[in-house]
């Protein structure tokens, strides 16, 4: 499945537009990961544990979106947009959403 942020794929014209597809993933923060991330924030450096969670959530959201496109008969998603939002009390949850237009190229 081809996914791109662009509205066109050079050399491959859109034959059919199938509609908007989305993928959303919400992940909760872990108490121990939060504690170590806070310490790292104080002393400086990157929070590898949060980066890993973010990467996995983004991958899952894209896979869910691509799965919807495939179910509609598409072979690509164009105009992909990825958004991040903090949810819950004290920002305890992170939502990653991906959306785009399913097409047949």
Give an overview of the whole structure:
The protein is of the alpha+beta class. It has one domain (2-104): Hypothetical protein apc22750. Chain B (Translation Initiation Factor IF3), CATH 3.30.110.70. The chain has helices spanning 31-43, 48-71, and strands at 2-3, 16-28, 76-87, 93-104. It has a 4-stranded mixed beta sheet with strand order 1-3-4-2. β3 (76-87) and β4 (93-104) form a beta hairpin. The chain is elongated, with a radius of gyration of 17 Å. The chain starts with a strand and ends with a strand.
Quick gist of this model?
The protein is α+β, with helices and mostly antiparallel strands and 105 residues long. The protein has helices at residues 31-43, 48-71, and strands at residues 2-3, 16-28, 76-87, 93-104. It has a single domain (2-104), classed as Hypothetical protein apc22750. Chain B (Translation Initiation Factor IF3, 2-Layer Sandwich), CATH 3.30.110.
The first-to-last residue Cα distance is: 11 Å
Report the CATH superfamily.
Hypothetical protein apc22750. Chain B
Structural class: alpha+beta
Number of domains: 1
Count of helix runs = 2
Q: Beta-strand percentage?
A: 35-45%
Radius of gyration: 17 Å
CATH topology: Translation Initiation Factor IF3
Nearest-integer average pLDDT:
84
The CATH architecture? 2-Layer Sandwich
- Placed side by side, the strands forming the largest sheet appear as 1-3-4-2
N to C succession of SSEs: EEHHEE
How many strands, what sense, and barrel or not for the largest sheet? Answer: 4 strands, mixed
CATH class assignment: Alpha Beta
* Fraction in helix: 25-40%
Which stretches are poorly predicted, pLDDT < 50 over at least 5 residues?
none
Could you say which overall geometry the principal axes of the C-alpha atoms support? elongated
Report the count of strand segments: 4
Family: Belongs to the UPF0145 family.
InterPro entries: UPF0145_dom_sf (IPR035439), UPF0145_YbjQ-like (IPR002765)
Organism: Novosphingobium kunmingense
Pfam families: YbjQ_1
